[in-house]
Sequence to fold (379 residues):
Amino acid sequence: MKKLFILFIFLFSIQSVFAQLNFLPKFIRQMYFKKDSSLKPSFVLLPALSSAPETGVEFGGAALLSFYTDTIGHNTRVSSLFGYSTITTKGQAKLSLNANYWTPQNKFHYTGVISYYNYPFNFYGIGNNTRLSALDHVAEKRYKLGITGEKRFGDYFYLGYVAGVIKYFYKYDPNLKSTINSDPEVEDGHGGANVYIGPSFTFDTRNNNTYTTKGMIISSYYNIMHGVYANNSYAGGFFNIEYSQFFLLARKLVLGVDIQEQSLTGSRSPFFLLPQMGSDEMMRGYYQGRYRDRNYIAGQTELRYRVDNRFGIVGFVGTGEVFHSTFSTAQLKPNYGGGVRYFFDVEKGLAIRLDYGVGQKPQGEKRESGFYIALGQSF
Fold:
């Protein structure tokens, strides 16, 4: 919590002092401090600073171009191009370019991603009750190319597709005992490449896609997956559905509810495709991948208070679990925490968020928790 407090004071000091002084270059004032209601494109260069239990501190450079494809009306949602290159204190490196494009009047919606991750991580095994003592350091390299496209039918329904290719590679050393190579519950420990394609469905009544104050969204997709090259014997699928709804309780107070379910289908269970608990968006406080299995379900509620145009505070509580085939309420894990928001683009509702999440305390281990710095709302 101390780190969160220091960063909050730092951001507050910059905004309150520099925004009133004229000695900063014009493009800096335009990027960070000027409120723009003209619907013009905005470009922001950011030192990419983030934090999560699985990465430690992550730093590098990022660029965000946000724009409207229709500047006459006020109904078209914000489109964006977001690219970043970062390294972390835990030896990971990321390079990614993401596109999010809404055509005028939101008739079509497209997204795309090209990414490369060199991502060493801690692997603890399969299941909802893994132990810290089972820790295995795994070196992973991951390549991904993905696209989605949806067409609006009526006012709120979107139908479309998902498609792409993803490859996971794990260095294998026959002289080194490794869980992913020796545990019989771990399948496809050497990694593999898969192509995927499938349908997507979205029902979206949100009043804004960057800072929602009312409305709901239900999004779902199913990836039909098939292995390629050395992994060509694999055939399976991945199903995801998420429901979020927002209630405006008062002029500055919003309540958000979010529920997500993921399932791996098919006879095989490649460990790198298994749903994982923990991220900077859901079940904050858990190391991502500490718990993984064929099925995952989680839910959270978040109370958001907009202090002023630039700052907001939130509190959240949630629960979730992973399981092989049978869901059990007794196995649900707790999640709670809070954070602050700094809106660097007031008109578009674009924010940097800082969260501290707390999870369970496994017997004989310290309580699970994590500090996060990220771009945009958690959901």
Notes: The longest strand covers residues 235-250. Residues 1-33 have pLDDT under 50 and may be disordered. The radius of gyration is 21 Å. The first helix runs from residue 2 to 18.
